[in-house]
Specification:
globular; 8 helices; six-stranded mixed β-sheet; alpha/beta; single chain
């Protein structure tokens, strides 16, 4: 009888330990295409959203979540890749509805706190037109619950991966890198043309960068890592081969 009791206690202790911290898994990735940008849902032990859309995107986001069987309270965290209005606008509202933690790079905390884009620096003529006629730079300001300085592991949400800061597109741009080689890079790159409406799997340069040269270097930094498939804020996803074709490998003498 004593041995049976010991066995039961051991089984109970093991169950409590497993429940105390979600075990990282290989997650499913869902992409919700909204009015101007993508929101990605990483479905591990909990749901982690990457980015938070534009003003006016809430009904479409809620409909997409419903089709995927995701409720507001299923969302444990929102990783905002950068503080621009087409990626951060719904962050505060999502937190109110879900209780999710908002995660942001340290370099973009001030931008999020003002609820206004930084000075957009166009990379081509189309970008100049977009800046002038198509972009509302304002959104509901917010203060993040978690600020990424260097690296944040995602294991506490049951996802095998990490988040780290690569300033370039903005001062606090984040990369979400899963251990299986899938990465989420926000607006470091653009997929296709017309905001991803045409040829979305073709990697190319985004319309705006705070530091264009540093962003270019960041792409080559990614290519030195394990990344095989890159999910973007607009268009995508794009393969490593597509990124190399557009930007070169970063190796000496290579295109």
């Amino acid at each position: 009888m004593r041995n049976v009791l010991r066995s039961l206690l051991a089984m109970l202790a093991a169950a409590l330990l497993v429940g105390a911290e979600a075990q990282p898994t290989t997650p499913e990735v869902l992409t919700f295409k909204l009015s101007m940008s993508n929101i990605h849902a990483i479905r591990g032990a909990r749901i982690v959203l990457v980015d938070a859309g534009s003003k006016g995107d809430l009904p479409k986001l809620e409909a997409e979540m419903g089709r995927a069987g995701i409720g507001w309270r299923d969302i444990a965290a929102v990783i905002v890749t950068h503080g621009h209005s087409d990626h951060a606008a719904l962050a505060a509202e999502i937190r109110r509805r879900s209780g999710a933690a908002l995660i942001l790079g340290s370099g973009d905390v001030e931008m999020a706190g003002t609820g206004h884009n930084d000075e957009l620096k166009p990379t081509n003529f189309m970008a100049t037109l977009l800046k002038k006629f198509a972009i509302d730079p304002t959104y509901e300001a917010f203060k993040p619950d978690r600020v990424v300085e260097r690296e944040l592991r995602l294991g506490e949400w049951g996802i095998a991966g990490r988040v780290y800061q690569l300033p370039g597109h903005t001062p606090g741009s984040l990369v979400v890198e899963l251990d299986d080689g899938r990465s989420f890079v926000g607006d470091m790159m653009l997929g296709g043309y017309l905001g991803g409406a045409l040829m979305p799997q073709r990697a190319g340069e985004h319309y705006f960068h705070a530091d264009r040269h540093r962003n270019f270097e960041n792409i080559h930094t990614l290519l030195k890592g394990p990344g095989k498939l890159f999910f973007l804020g607009h268009g995508g996803p794009v393969t490593r081969e597509s990124v190399v074709a557009a930007f070169g490998s970063g190796e000496p003498g290579a295109h």
